């Protein structure tokens, strides 16, 4: 499907990109030093857009639900990321080309070469090669090397296709075997790359002056939030459910970042960790508020059957029929959708894709990505995972910290179970140095085992317990040292480890999608094709109002200053353009900056304090007195009114945009 | 001078610190893993305070002066920080203790041991040892080891004192010599530490998969701004002066961070780079707006004479009499002062200290630090330096990028100077491979040299030029290859490298000072000494309003919800405390959180929709209807009114704060 602009024009990424750089939405970092792949700076409009999106995010999520925002460090000691699994698993497989030293991502390499061969086969068979629709999970790559028309055996074709279908499931050794078996060569050098080695994607450093304190830059903000769980629960006065939230930079050392702003090494994330009781089906008290929100879903079963058909369905129904695992997850999917809509994501370019079983971390219960459509394909911009109790459990196990909730039970419950008493006075002296290990092994015995041992004790007067590392590994304990009894205990509290629902936003990716989704050119109105427009919704637009004096006439200066101060005092960001360029050129520049409104100060303004207000998208203008214009601006920025409302209420101003310089007396 | 609380009570740092941690303003990062020195997380109130201070900073500086905000990466390739001087110079000297492996900062070590010996000497001489007022430039350290009463020779005392006076001026080798010469031993092990080695304070990492791309985490945000200078000037439509600004994390790998939140390894900075034409005395067009702002200054001359006397002086006068180098620097000092005042810095605990000549970077023209007084001494929180043209010059030289301003001259100027023409057709063939080097050497000749050479050419028919690396280093060029003439040229433009005035804010340090400056306990009113209060000004307070229902009676719930939504809709952050604790306890908790206002919802509210509004600082209450209460809250938060005004306008509510649980029907 061809990508089009907001106004249905064919989309040209190079043109948009050059405009974004010209207007300094972004710029490659360290460009005067030649730049560094995967690192970008935001210039003033990019920076303001980001600040506005973050501000709305904070209002939409943090303030709306009284989330507990925290700011944790990016520097993280290795031990924490070892526990979380990142040190061992947060890696890609890479190969080195022995001839030119190129570093290649192994899975991408195998995929590209096999695809190239399959294309060559089709060409040889005289089949027209049609680029299939992009696989949502894979980034589009320029295929390496040229396609040679070589026919393959039917069996080989089938082998290749099977490999490609499960390319994400191979480990490094298996990828290496594929490279050898099929003699896959780097087209740039015509040699096989070296066997794949794991490359951890975290940036490593040392914390402090001694080299024995390795650390990493965090690859996500989540771990800092988990480690503070107990304190946050205390801060929340022990009330469940609750959520923490964090906005901050994360870092991933991509092997060879491409795709511009979509795959970068340093990026802003906004993450929420919502803690919920795993009992009771993970209901959400505000689910009814969103149950009718319709989402475009691409579920797991559809993908399994090799299709990408989506369905538009109310989240209430999707949870009811089990497509989405639970209410809390569904609640956040709907809230994510509403947020993306609010900031200006094109509603026809958004879908929620469920993770396949083999894509999810082994502990995750369910996971959906909000994907936005761009010229690079469907891009994951928000992940929303049910991480179950995994993170709190591993950190609690490693540190012994009580990362759990104690809940007072309204109705105490009685629990009947096997309990074990040891005669400590005799037990220790009897087993001496092995006492502690044997005691621990006994205390760890599960209920069903205790049942059986109670019978043994009764019949044999002793039991045999497995204790690793003590003697033969089997230890006998006689009945004068131990009692095993079934007892009933009344519990007034319940302890549990909460589950975590984690909406995780890649802010930079969302910003890039906003550029693509809101871009069009005046060519669509029959105007100048070279004049770009970014139709950001007023609440996120970098600057809200452009102030343009008709010319450099001195008479306009006090009014420009007055209106500028006035707008600032009501919290509206504005910019003055009093350069000598024509009115039309000045507006044009600000259309590219996405400024939604413009005020022209002309001779009429000097006379009667009326101003014209211009709408970026239609270029229509209205004219009214100061207070009326300011009220209109406020309502457009708050989102309480749209331009169509303003046009109905206020008299149109028919003066054309003037490209030529106005002669000034 | 003893530090006191905002209400003049003796200040106890341990008590404040424990309160800040209990209320989760901050917490040591990774505490359940044992923590990591110099890394701290902010909990919800610390995070909100930080966001509010940043928001005010952006309004006070960025929006007020249309600064160009940028967001650059923290990851920085080594080459850039090599050029800026950080790779070679951003280091401290450290020693290793050979016995226990302790890492010691060399200058601190020498200082501490010599001070301990001088104290011992005084004790031996029977002189009472008085702790002198803390040196503003040095962090207070617990002196190592115990003071032994050993009398020293008078000459030795003098030597020690001279060393201490210039302790900042020794390099590593010299510090090593001092350790040997005076046999300075680590009290912990009674051995001399190993010779000092330089320890660079930047965190190093590798960018990308190959190890030949070393990088660092930025130690300041400034470099990213300098590298974007040319693009920012273009964005600003070539208009000077202008400023860029950036808010972001920076990183410094301190050798052994102490002093809690004041010396950390990862911290938020807000930096401004204001570019100004070096010609014309660095005037500032808005200087008249601040010229009467009075600052407390500690100038260089006073410090040179070993004193710390300050003077309170209007910035207009300080610039006029040359104490502060120029108007632009003075303008920012005043603006910094106004900002610190606005966010709640105690006016009696702020001074501006001028850097001594040996403290400043060699390129700096003048530098002042805004220092805030705390229990740790006077702490540098904002630096304001005139960095001259240093940064732009070194990066331009290294990369060849034109980091300069071209200014159209209103009146063209004629320049008379010596110009050189080479006969290129003959010159190249004559000198062959050396041609380029010789040409470059000739073109680099300064005016005064050209003058002399023109005479030589006239008299001798040839000149001799120094060209490194060509033959003997002297090259003769005869008059058939070269012409040297005095000519007059008319220039319509002027090129110059702007100077940079850099106000640089350590946000974390400022936040810590806000805690100390706004803290007191109810003991000062004759109340409970254990009840802390943080009297933040309403605009920066983490939460503005606490909503407390009198009890858990169902009748209050709709009103609590209603007021909560109402406050949110007018942009006021509030928190509900409907826990079962007494009203008094709930207010008390929020006094410690610095919440300035409280609304109690009681049975009267249910009847007539009136509410009480409570002031944190006086605990006084007023009562009025909803709209009146909301208007009062808005005006207090905007800073347009103070509590004294509200008390005059609205009827007092005399109901006492109740500590006991209210019985509920």
Give the helices and strands, then pairings.
2 copies of one chain form a homodimer.
Chain A (H helix, E strand, L loop, with lengths): L12 H10 L3 E3 L11 E3 L1 H20 L4 E2 L5 E3 H6 L2 H4 L1 E6 L6 E3 H19 L29 H12 L6 H10 L15 E4 L3 E3 L7 E4 L4 H6 L1 H7 L6 E10 L14 E11 L10 H4 L3 E5 L1 H5 L6 E4 H6 L6 H17 L6 E5 L11 E9 L2 E12 L1 H10 L5 E18 L1 H8 L3 H9 L3 H14 L1 E5 L7 E5 L3 E15 L2 E8 H12 E3 L10 E3 L10 E5 L7 H13 L4 E3 L6 H10 L4 E5 L1 H6 L1 E6 L5 E5 H13 L4 H7 L16
Parallel strand pairs in A: 3-10, 12-14, 24-25, 24-26
Antiparallel strand pairs in A: 1-2, 4-9, 5-6, 5-7, 8-9, 10-11, 11-21, 12-13, 14-15, 15-16, 16-21, 17-20, 18-19, 22-23, 26-27, 27-28
Tell me what you see in this structure.
The structure is a homodimer of 665-residue chains. The longest helix of chain A is centred in the first third of the chain and has 20 residues, at 44-63. By secondary structure, chain A is α+β, with helices and mostly antiparallel strands. The radius of gyration of chain A is 32 Å and the shape is globular. Chain A folds into four domains: 13-72 and 218-391 and 501-506, BirA Bifunctional Protein, domain 2; 91-200, 2-Layer Sandwich (Herpes Virus-1), CATH 3.30.40; 411-492, 2-Layer Sandwich (Signal recognition particle alu RNA binding heterodimer, srp9/1), CATH 3.30.720.200; 543-649, 3-Layer(aba) Sandwich (Rossmann fold). Chain A has a nine-stranded mixed sheet with strand order 3-10-11-21-16-15-14-12-13. Chain A is built from 23 helices and 28 strands. Chains A and B meet through β2, α2, β3, β4 and β8 of A and β2, α2, β3, β4 and β8 of B. Chains A, B: It catalyses: 2 ATP + H(+) = P(1),P(4)-bis(5'-adenosyl) tetraphosphate + diphosphate. Chains A, B: InterPro entries: aa-tRNA-synt_IIb (IPR002314), aa-tRNA-synth_II (IPR006195), aa-tRNA-synth_II/BPL/LPL (IPR045864), Anticodon-bd (IPR004154), Anticodon-bd_dom_sf (IPR036621), Gly-tRNA_synthase/POLG2 (IPR027031), GlyRS-like_core (IPR033731), tRNA-synt_gly (IPR002315).
């Amino acid at each position: 499907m061809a990508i089009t602009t907001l106004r249905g024009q064919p989309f040209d990424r190079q043109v948009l990109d050059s405009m974004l750089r010209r207007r300094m939405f972004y710029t490659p970092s360290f460009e005067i030093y030649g730049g560094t792949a995967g690192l970008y700076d935001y210039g003033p409009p990019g920076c303001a857009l980001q600040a506005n999106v973050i501000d709305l995010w904070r209002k939409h999520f943090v303030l709306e639900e009284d989330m507990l925002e925290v700011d944790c460090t990016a520097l993280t000691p290795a031990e924490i990321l070892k526990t979380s699994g990142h040190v061992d698993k947060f890696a890609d497989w890479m190969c080195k080309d022995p001839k030119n030293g190129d570093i290649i991502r192994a899975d991408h390499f195998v995929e590209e070469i096999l695809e190239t061969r399959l294309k060559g086969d089709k060409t040889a068979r005289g089949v027209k090669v049609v680029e299939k629709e992009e696989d949502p999970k894979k980034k589009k790559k320029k295929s390496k090397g040229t396609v040679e028309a070589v026919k393959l055996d039917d069996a080989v074709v089938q082998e290749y296709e099977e490999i490609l279908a499960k390319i994400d499931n191979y480990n490094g050794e298996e990828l290496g075997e594929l490279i050898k078996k099929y003699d896959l060569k780097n087209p740039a050098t015509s040699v096989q790359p070296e066997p794949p080695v794991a490359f951890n994607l975290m940036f490593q450093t040392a914390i402090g002056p001694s080299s024995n304190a390795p650390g990493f830059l965090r690859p996500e903000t989540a771990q800092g939030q988990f480690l503070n769980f107990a304190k946050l629960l205390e801060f929340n006065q022990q009330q469940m459910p609750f959520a923490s939230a964090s906005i901050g930079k994360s870092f991933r050392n991509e092997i060879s970042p491409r795709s511009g702003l979509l795959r970068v090494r340093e990026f802003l994330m906004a993450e929420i960790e919502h803690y919920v009781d795993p009992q009771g089906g993970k209901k959400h008290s505000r689910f009814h508020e969103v149950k009718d929100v319709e989402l475009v879903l691409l579920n797991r079963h559809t993908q399994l059957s090799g299709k990408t058909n989506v369905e538009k369905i109310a989240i209430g129904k999707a949870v009811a029929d089990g497509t989405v695992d639970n209410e809390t997850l569904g609640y956040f999917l709907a809230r994510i959708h509403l947020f993306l809509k609010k900031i200006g994501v094109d509603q026809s370019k958004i879908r929620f894709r469920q993770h396949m079983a083999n894509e999810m971390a082994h502990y995750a219960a369910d996971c959906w990505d909000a994907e936005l459509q761009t010229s690079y394909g469907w891009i994951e911009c928000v992940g929303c995972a049910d991480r179950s109790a995994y993170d709190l459990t591993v950190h609690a196990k490693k540190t012994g910290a009580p990362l759990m909730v104690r809940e007072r039970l309204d109705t105490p419950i009685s629990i009947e179970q096997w309990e074990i008493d040891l005669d400590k006075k005799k037990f220790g002296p009897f087993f001496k140095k092995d006492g502690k290990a044997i005691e621990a092994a006994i205390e760890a015995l599960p209920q069903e085992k205790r049942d059986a041992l109670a019978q043994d004790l009764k019949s044999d007067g002793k039991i045999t317990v497995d204790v690793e590392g003590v003697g033969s590994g089997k230890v006998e304990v006689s009945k004068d040292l131990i009692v095993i009894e079934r007892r009933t205990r009344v519990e007034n509290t319940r302890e549990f480890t909460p589950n975590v629902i984690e909406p995780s936003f890649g802010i930079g990716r969302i910003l890039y999608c906003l550029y693509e989704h809101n871009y069009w050119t005046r060519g669509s109105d029959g105007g100048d094709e070279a004049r770009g427009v970014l139709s950001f919704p007023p609440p996120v637009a970098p600057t809200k109002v452009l102030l343009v004096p008709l010319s450099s006439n001195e008479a306009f200066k006090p009014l420009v200053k007055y209106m500028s101060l006035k707008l600032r005092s009501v919290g509206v960001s504005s910019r003055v353009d009093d350069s000598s360029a024509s009115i039309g050129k000045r507006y044009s520049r600000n259309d590219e900056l996405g400024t939604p409104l413009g005020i022209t100060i002309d001779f009429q303004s000097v006379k009667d304090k009326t101003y014209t207000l211009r709408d970026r998208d239609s270029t229509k203008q209205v004219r009214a007195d100061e207070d009326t214009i300011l009220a209109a601006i406020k309502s457009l920025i708050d989102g309480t009114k749209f331009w169509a409302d303003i046009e109905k209420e206020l008299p149109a101003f028919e003066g054309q945009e003037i490209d030529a310089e106005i002669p000034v007396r």
